[in-house]
Design goal:
GO terms for molecular function: glycosyltransferase activity. This is Glycosyl transferase family 1 domain-containing protein. InterPro entries: Glyco_trans_1. It comes from Aquimarina atlantica. The protein is α/β, with parallel strands linked by helices and about 375 residues long. The protein has helices at about 15-30, 75, 80-95, 105-110, 130-135, 140-155, 210-220, 235-250, 265-270, 285-290, 325-335, 335-350, 355-370; strands at about 1-5, 35-40, 55-60, 95-100, 120, 160, 175, 195-200, 225-230, 255-260, 275, 295-300, 315-320. The longest helix is centred in the first third of the chain and has 15 residues, at about 80-95. The protein is built from 13 helices and 13 strands. The protein folds into two domains: about 1-180 and about 355-370, 3-Layer(aba) Sandwich (Rossmann fold), CATH 3.40.50; about 195-355, Rossmann fold (3-Layer(aba) Sandwich). It starts with a strand and ends with a helix. Strand 9, helix 8 (about 235-250) and strand 10 form a beta-alpha-beta unit.
Length: about 375
Protein backbone atom coordinates (compact mmCIF):
# COMPACT_ATOMS: atom_id res chain seq x y z
CA UNK A 1 0.00 0.00 0.00
CA UNK A 2 1.34 3.43 -0.95
CA UNK A 3 0.32 6.15 1.51
CA UNK A 4 1.05 9.87 1.23
CA UNK A 5 0.95 12.10 4.31
CA UNK A 6 0.76 15.86 3.70
CA UNK A 7 2.03 18.33 6.32
CA UNK A 8 3.59 21.80 6.28
CA UNK A 9 6.89 20.73 7.95
CA UNK A 10 8.41 18.26 10.39
CA UNK A 11 11.28 20.30 11.82
CA UNK A 12 9.33 22.04 14.60
CA UNK A 13 8.45 20.24 17.81
CA UNK A 14 4.69 19.76 18.05
CA UNK A 15 1.97 17.21 18.72
CA UNK A 16 0.99 16.77 15.06
CA UNK A 17 4.59 16.20 13.99
CA UNK A 18 5.22 13.74 16.82
CA UNK A 19 2.06 11.73 16.13
CA UNK A 20 2.87 11.67 12.40
CA UNK A 21 6.30 10.20 13.14
CA UNK A 22 4.73 7.41 15.20
CA UNK A 23 2.09 6.56 12.59
CA UNK A 24 4.42 6.79 9.61
CA UNK A 25 7.12 4.71 11.29
CA UNK A 26 4.63 2.00 12.20
CA UNK A 27 3.21 1.84 8.68
CA UNK A 28 6.69 1.93 7.10
CA UNK A 29 7.73 -1.08 9.19
CA UNK A 30 4.97 -3.22 7.67
CA UNK A 31 5.80 -5.29 4.59
CA UNK A 32 4.44 -4.07 1.23
CA UNK A 33 3.86 -0.51 2.53
CA UNK A 34 5.55 2.50 0.97
CA UNK A 35 5.20 5.75 2.91
CA UNK A 36 5.70 9.28 1.54
CA UNK A 37 5.62 12.58 3.44
CA UNK A 38 5.04 15.70 1.35
CA UNK A 39 5.96 19.01 3.03
CA UNK A 40 5.47 22.58 1.83
CA UNK A 41 8.20 24.33 3.78
CA UNK A 42 10.82 21.98 5.24
CA UNK A 43 13.60 24.41 4.19
CA UNK A 44 16.29 21.68 4.12
CA UNK A 45 16.02 21.29 7.89
CA UNK A 46 16.28 17.92 9.63
CA UNK A 47 13.11 16.40 11.10
CA UNK A 48 12.84 17.02 14.83
CA UNK A 49 11.58 13.48 15.43
CA UNK A 50 13.02 10.18 14.27
CA UNK A 51 11.60 8.77 11.02
CA UNK A 52 12.12 5.33 9.50
CA UNK A 53 14.78 5.39 6.77
CA UNK A 54 12.29 3.78 4.37
CA UNK A 55 10.04 6.86 4.45
CA UNK A 56 10.43 9.08 1.37
CA UNK A 57 10.28 12.85 1.92
CA UNK A 58 9.38 15.34 -0.79
CA UNK A 59 9.38 19.08 -0.09
CA UNK A 60 7.50 21.41 -2.43
CA UNK A 61 9.41 24.54 -1.39
CA UNK A 62 6.30 26.74 -1.20
CA UNK A 63 7.53 28.48 1.96
CA UNK A 64 4.51 30.45 3.10
CA UNK A 65 5.15 33.34 5.47
CA UNK A 66 4.27 31.67 8.75
CA UNK A 67 3.81 34.95 10.62
CA UNK A 68 0.84 35.77 8.38
CA UNK A 69 -2.48 34.07 7.72
CA UNK A 70 -2.46 31.50 4.94
CA UNK A 71 -5.18 33.68 3.39
CA UNK A 72 -3.13 36.87 3.49
CA UNK A 73 -2.53 38.18 -0.07
CA UNK A 74 1.22 37.54 0.16
CA UNK A 75 0.51 33.86 0.84
CA UNK A 76 -2.46 33.50 -1.49
CA UNK A 77 -0.15 34.43 -4.38
CA UNK A 78 1.73 31.21 -3.69
CA UNK A 79 -1.40 29.06 -3.81
CA UNK A 80 -1.44 28.30 -7.59
CA UNK A 81 2.15 27.05 -7.37
CA UNK A 82 1.22 24.99 -4.31
CA UNK A 83 -1.73 23.34 -6.07
CA UNK A 84 0.27 22.65 -9.26
CA UNK A 85 3.23 21.12 -7.43
CA UNK A 86 1.05 19.01 -5.13
CA UNK A 87 -0.97 17.68 -8.02
CA UNK A 88 2.19 16.81 -9.96
CA UNK A 89 3.88 14.98 -7.06
CA UNK A 90 0.77 12.99 -6.18
CA UNK A 91 0.31 12.03 -9.83
CA UNK A 92 3.91 10.81 -10.00
CA UNK A 93 3.66 8.79 -6.77
CA UNK A 94 0.18 7.46 -7.63
CA UNK A 95 -0.63 6.53 -4.01
CA UNK A 96 -3.48 4.37 -2.76
CA UNK A 97 -4.37 6.87 0.00
CA UNK A 98 -3.66 10.56 0.71
CA UNK A 99 -3.82 11.81 4.32
CA UNK A 100 -3.76 15.54 5.14
CA UNK A 101 -2.33 16.10 8.65
CA UNK A 102 -1.87 19.84 9.10
CA UNK A 103 -4.51 22.53 8.78
CA UNK A 104 -3.12 24.75 6.05
CA UNK A 105 -4.25 25.75 2.55
CA UNK A 106 -3.87 22.23 1.16
CA UNK A 107 -6.80 21.20 3.36
CA UNK A 108 -9.08 23.16 1.04
CA UNK A 109 -7.90 21.92 -2.36
CA UNK A 110 -6.72 18.33 -1.83
CA UNK A 111 -10.21 16.79 -2.28
CA UNK A 112 -10.51 18.43 -5.71
CA UNK A 113 -7.25 17.24 -7.29
CA UNK A 114 -6.04 13.78 -8.36
CA UNK A 115 -9.59 12.46 -8.41
CA UNK A 116 -10.05 8.75 -7.79
CA UNK A 117 -7.57 8.55 -4.91
CA UNK A 118 -9.23 8.28 -1.46
CA UNK A 119 -8.52 11.36 0.68
CA UNK A 120 -8.46 11.53 4.48
CA UNK A 121 -8.28 14.67 6.63
CA UNK A 122 -7.06 14.57 10.23
CA UNK A 123 -8.25 17.13 12.76
CA UNK A 124 -5.97 17.82 15.70
CA UNK A 125 -7.88 20.71 17.25
CA UNK A 126 -11.31 21.07 18.79
CA UNK A 127 -13.98 22.71 16.65
CA UNK A 128 -15.42 24.01 19.90
CA UNK A 129 -13.35 27.12 19.21
CA UNK A 130 -15.52 27.82 16.13
CA UNK A 131 -18.86 27.71 17.95
CA UNK A 132 -19.12 31.42 18.70
CA UNK A 133 -18.23 32.39 15.12
CA UNK A 134 -20.79 29.93 13.77
CA UNK A 135 -23.54 31.32 15.99
CA UNK A 136 -22.55 34.96 15.54
CA UNK A 137 -20.22 35.41 12.56
CA UNK A 138 -18.06 38.54 12.83
CA UNK A 139 -18.78 39.34 9.20
CA UNK A 140 -20.13 37.84 5.99
CA UNK A 141 -16.65 36.78 4.95
CA UNK A 142 -16.31 34.61 8.06
CA UNK A 143 -19.82 33.24 7.64
CA UNK A 144 -19.26 32.10 4.08
CA UNK A 145 -15.77 30.80 4.78
CA UNK A 146 -17.18 28.45 7.44
CA UNK A 147 -19.83 27.28 4.97
CA UNK A 148 -17.07 26.67 2.42
CA UNK A 149 -15.05 24.71 5.00
CA UNK A 150 -18.09 22.54 5.76
CA UNK A 151 -18.50 21.87 2.04
CA UNK A 152 -14.84 20.90 1.61
CA UNK A 153 -15.08 18.47 4.50
CA UNK A 154 -17.91 16.61 2.80
CA UNK A 155 -15.58 15.96 -0.15
CA UNK A 156 -13.10 13.96 1.92
CA UNK A 157 -13.68 10.23 2.06
CA UNK A 158 -13.03 10.27 5.81
CA UNK A 159 -12.49 12.89 8.50
CA UNK A 160 -10.43 11.53 11.38
CA UNK A 161 -11.41 13.12 14.70
CA UNK A 162 -9.88 12.40 18.09
CA UNK A 163 -12.97 11.85 20.24
CA UNK A 164 -16.67 11.20 19.78
CA UNK A 165 -17.71 14.54 21.28
CA UNK A 166 -16.13 16.32 18.31
CA UNK A 167 -18.51 14.63 15.83
CA UNK A 168 -21.28 17.02 16.88
CA UNK A 169 -19.34 19.94 15.38
CA UNK A 170 -19.22 18.50 11.84
CA UNK A 171 -21.88 19.01 9.21
CA UNK A 172 -20.86 15.86 7.31
CA UNK A 173 -21.36 12.22 8.27
CA UNK A 174 -17.94 10.97 7.16
CA UNK A 175 -16.21 11.21 10.54
CA UNK A 176 -14.33 8.34 12.18
CA UNK A 177 -12.90 8.45 15.70
CA UNK A 178 -9.24 7.45 15.97
CA UNK A 179 -7.41 8.72 19.07
CA UNK A 180 -3.73 9.61 19.08
CA UNK A 181 -1.37 6.75 19.95
CA UNK A 182 0.64 6.74 23.15
CA UNK A 183 4.18 7.95 22.52
CA UNK A 184 5.82 5.94 25.31
CA UNK A 185 5.01 3.37 27.99
CA UNK A 186 7.94 3.22 30.42
CA UNK A 187 8.80 0.02 32.26
CA UNK A 188 8.97 1.89 35.56
CA UNK A 189 6.40 4.32 36.90
CA UNK A 190 6.48 7.25 39.28
CA UNK A 191 6.94 6.36 42.93
CA UNK A 192 4.47 9.13 43.82
CA UNK A 193 6.93 10.16 46.54
CA UNK A 194 8.19 13.54 45.30
CA UNK A 195 6.34 16.70 46.25
CA UNK A 196 6.08 17.85 42.64
CA UNK A 197 3.05 18.65 40.48
CA UNK A 198 3.89 18.85 36.80
CA UNK A 199 2.27 20.27 33.71
CA UNK A 200 3.63 20.51 30.18
CA UNK A 201 2.63 22.02 26.88
CA UNK A 202 2.81 25.07 24.69
CA UNK A 203 3.01 28.25 26.79
CA UNK A 204 -0.06 30.00 25.41
CA UNK A 205 -3.18 31.64 26.81
CA UNK A 206 -5.39 28.69 25.80
CA UNK A 207 -3.50 26.51 28.28
CA UNK A 208 -4.72 28.61 31.22
CA UNK A 209 -1.39 28.78 33.05
CA UNK A 210 -2.37 32.18 34.45
CA UNK A 211 -5.24 30.44 36.26
CA UNK A 212 -2.89 27.71 37.42
CA UNK A 213 -0.73 30.35 39.09
CA UNK A 214 -3.80 31.60 41.00
CA UNK A 215 -4.61 28.00 41.95
CA UNK A 216 -1.09 27.39 43.17
CA UNK A 217 -1.23 30.49 45.36
CA UNK A 218 -4.01 28.74 47.32
CA UNK A 219 -2.21 25.38 47.39
CA UNK A 220 1.17 26.70 48.49
CA UNK A 221 -0.32 28.28 51.62
CA UNK A 222 -1.42 24.81 52.72
CA UNK A 223 1.51 22.80 51.37
CA UNK A 224 4.54 25.09 50.91
CA UNK A 225 6.84 22.07 50.53
CA UNK A 226 5.20 21.13 47.22
CA UNK A 227 6.37 22.59 43.90
CA UNK A 228 4.62 23.14 40.56
CA UNK A 229 6.83 22.70 37.49
CA UNK A 230 5.61 24.03 34.12
CA UNK A 231 7.46 22.72 31.04
CA UNK A 232 7.20 24.24 27.56
CA UNK A 233 7.92 27.39 25.63
CA UNK A 234 5.94 30.09 23.91
CA UNK A 235 5.83 33.72 22.87
CA UNK A 236 8.44 35.55 25.02
CA UNK A 237 6.05 38.34 25.99
CA UNK A 238 3.47 35.89 27.31
CA UNK A 239 6.11 33.88 29.18
CA UNK A 240 7.32 37.10 30.81
CA UNK A 241 3.77 37.99 31.82
CA UNK A 242 3.46 34.64 33.60
CA UNK A 243 6.82 35.04 35.32
CA UNK A 244 5.88 38.54 36.44
CA UNK A 245 2.68 37.16 37.94
CA UNK A 246 4.62 34.43 39.74
CA UNK A 247 7.02 37.03 41.14
CA UNK A 248 4.21 39.39 42.15
CA UNK A 249 2.62 36.59 44.19
CA UNK A 250 6.03 35.67 45.65
CA UNK A 251 5.67 32.10 44.36
CA UNK A 252 9.05 31.80 42.65
CA UNK A 253 10.30 29.25 45.22
CA UNK A 254 7.20 27.08 44.74
CA UNK A 255 6.28 27.48 41.06
CA UNK A 256 8.84 27.32 38.26
CA UNK A 257 8.63 27.92 34.52
CA UNK A 258 11.12 25.24 33.48
CA UNK A 259 11.25 25.89 29.74
CA UNK A 260 11.51 23.15 27.13
CA UNK A 261 12.70 19.67 28.07
CA UNK A 262 13.78 16.82 25.81
CA UNK A 263 12.99 14.38 28.62
CA UNK A 264 9.33 14.95 29.47
CA UNK A 265 9.06 11.26 30.43
CA UNK A 266 11.83 11.60 33.02
CA UNK A 267 10.27 14.76 34.43
CA UNK A 268 6.90 13.01 34.76
CA UNK A 269 8.47 10.00 36.47
CA UNK A 270 9.98 12.38 39.03
CA UNK A 271 6.56 13.94 39.77
CA UNK A 272 3.44 12.82 41.64
CA UNK A 273 0.48 14.63 40.01
CA UNK A 274 -0.23 16.08 36.55
CA UNK A 275 -2.34 19.25 36.33
CA UNK A 276 -4.14 20.63 33.26
CA UNK A 277 -5.79 24.07 33.27
CA UNK A 278 -6.68 24.47 29.58
CA UNK A 279 -9.66 26.45 28.28
CA UNK A 280 -10.20 23.81 25.59
CA UNK A 281 -8.50 20.66 24.29
CA UNK A 282 -9.22 18.03 21.67
CA UNK A 283 -7.21 14.98 22.67
CA UNK A 284 -4.35 16.02 24.97
CA UNK A 285 -1.66 13.42 24.35
CA UNK A 286 0.26 14.77 27.31
CA UNK A 287 -2.43 13.36 29.63
CA UNK A 288 -1.88 9.86 28.26
CA UNK A 289 1.87 10.28 28.66
CA UNK A 290 1.36 11.29 32.29
CA UNK A 291 -0.93 8.32 32.85
CA UNK A 292 1.64 5.98 31.29
CA UNK A 293 4.07 7.25 33.94
CA UNK A 294 1.53 6.41 36.65
CA UNK A 295 0.43 9.97 37.44
CA UNK A 296 -3.09 10.87 38.60
CA UNK A 297 -4.60 13.78 36.65
CA UNK A 298 -6.38 16.86 37.92
CA UNK A 299 -7.87 18.85 35.05
CA UNK A 300 -10.55 21.35 34.23
CA UNK A 301 -13.44 19.60 32.50
CA UNK A 302 -12.92 21.72 29.40
CA UNK A 303 -14.26 20.88 25.95
CA UNK A 304 -13.61 18.16 24.98
CA UNK A 305 -10.45 16.18 25.52
CA UNK A 306 -9.83 15.54 29.23
CA UNK A 307 -13.22 13.94 29.87
CA UNK A 308 -12.39 11.30 27.24
CA UNK A 309 -9.23 10.31 29.11
CA UNK A 310 -9.80 11.09 32.80
CA UNK A 311 -12.35 9.35 35.04
CA UNK A 312 -12.97 9.13 38.78
CA UNK A 313 -10.62 6.17 39.13
CA UNK A 314 -7.56 7.84 37.61
CA UNK A 315 -8.06 11.51 38.36
CA UNK A 316 -10.40 14.41 39.03
CA UNK A 317 -12.28 16.63 36.56
CA UNK A 318 -12.97 20.11 37.90
CA UNK A 319 -15.83 22.34 36.70
CA UNK A 320 -14.11 24.73 34.33
CA UNK A 321 -12.82 27.99 35.86
CA UNK A 322 -13.50 26.84 39.43
CA UNK A 323 -10.03 27.65 40.72
CA UNK A 324 -10.90 27.08 44.36
CA UNK A 325 -12.19 23.55 43.73
CA UNK A 326 -9.12 22.80 41.62
CA UNK A 327 -6.88 23.88 44.51
CA UNK A 328 -8.95 21.92 47.05
CA UNK A 329 -8.69 18.72 45.00
CA UNK A 330 -4.92 19.13 44.68
CA UNK A 331 -4.73 19.55 48.45
CA UNK A 332 -6.90 16.47 49.03
CA UNK A 333 -4.59 14.31 46.91
CA UNK A 334 -1.44 15.75 48.46
CA UNK A 335 -2.52 14.60 51.92
CA UNK A 336 -3.58 11.13 50.76
CA UNK A 337 -0.63 9.17 49.32
CA UNK A 338 -2.62 5.92 49.31
CA UNK A 339 -5.26 7.45 47.04
CA UNK A 340 -2.53 8.95 44.87
CA UNK A 341 -0.98 5.51 44.36
CA UNK A 342 -4.35 3.87 43.60
CA UNK A 343 -5.20 6.54 41.02
CA UNK A 344 -1.71 6.22 39.53
CA UNK A 345 -2.18 2.48 38.99
CA UNK A 346 -5.55 3.06 37.33
CA UNK A 347 -4.06 5.80 35.15
CA UNK A 348 -1.30 3.48 33.97
CA UNK A 349 -3.86 0.82 33.07
CA UNK A 350 -5.98 3.32 31.11
CA UNK A 351 -2.96 4.50 29.11
CA UNK A 352 -2.30 0.97 27.87
CA UNK A 353 -5.55 1.12 25.85
CA UNK A 354 -3.89 3.67 23.55
CA UNK A 355 -0.88 1.62 22.53
CA UNK A 356 0.50 2.19 19.03
CA UNK A 357 -0.68 -1.29 18.02
CA UNK A 358 -4.26 -0.66 19.18
CA UNK A 359 -4.53 2.75 17.51
CA UNK A 360 -2.85 1.73 14.25
CA UNK A 361 -5.25 -1.19 13.96
CA UNK A 362 -8.00 1.44 13.63
CA UNK A 363 -6.03 3.27 10.91
CA UNK A 364 -5.45 0.07 8.96
CA UNK A 365 -9.12 -0.88 9.25
CA UNK A 366 -10.09 2.50 7.80
CA UNK A 367 -7.55 2.20 4.96
CA UNK A 368 -8.82 -1.28 4.09
CA UNK A 369 -12.40 -0.02 4.12
CA UNK A 370 -11.54 2.84 1.75
CA UNK A 371 -9.76 0.44 -0.62
CA UNK A 372 -12.45 -2.24 -0.31
CA UNK A 373 -9.88 -4.78 0.89
Amino acid sequence: MKIVFIIDQVYLHGGIERVLSIKANYLASMPHNKIYIITTEQKDKKPCYEFNDKIIFKDLGINYQRNKSYFHPVNLRKLPKHIKKTKSVIKKINPDIVVVCSHSTDTYFIPFINKGIPKVKEFHYSKFIELENRKNPRNLQKKYFLKFADYVETKYDKLVILNQDEAAYYASDNTVVIPNPLTFYPEKVSTISNNIVITAGRIASVKGYDMLIDIWEIVSKKYPEWELHIYGDGEPGYVKMLQDKIDAKNLQDHLMLKGVTSDVKGKMLASSIFAMSSHNECFPLVLLEAQACGLPIISFDCPNGPRNIVNTENGVLIPIYNNVEFANQLIELMKNRVKLEEMGKSARQNASNYSVENVMKLWNNMFNELLNL
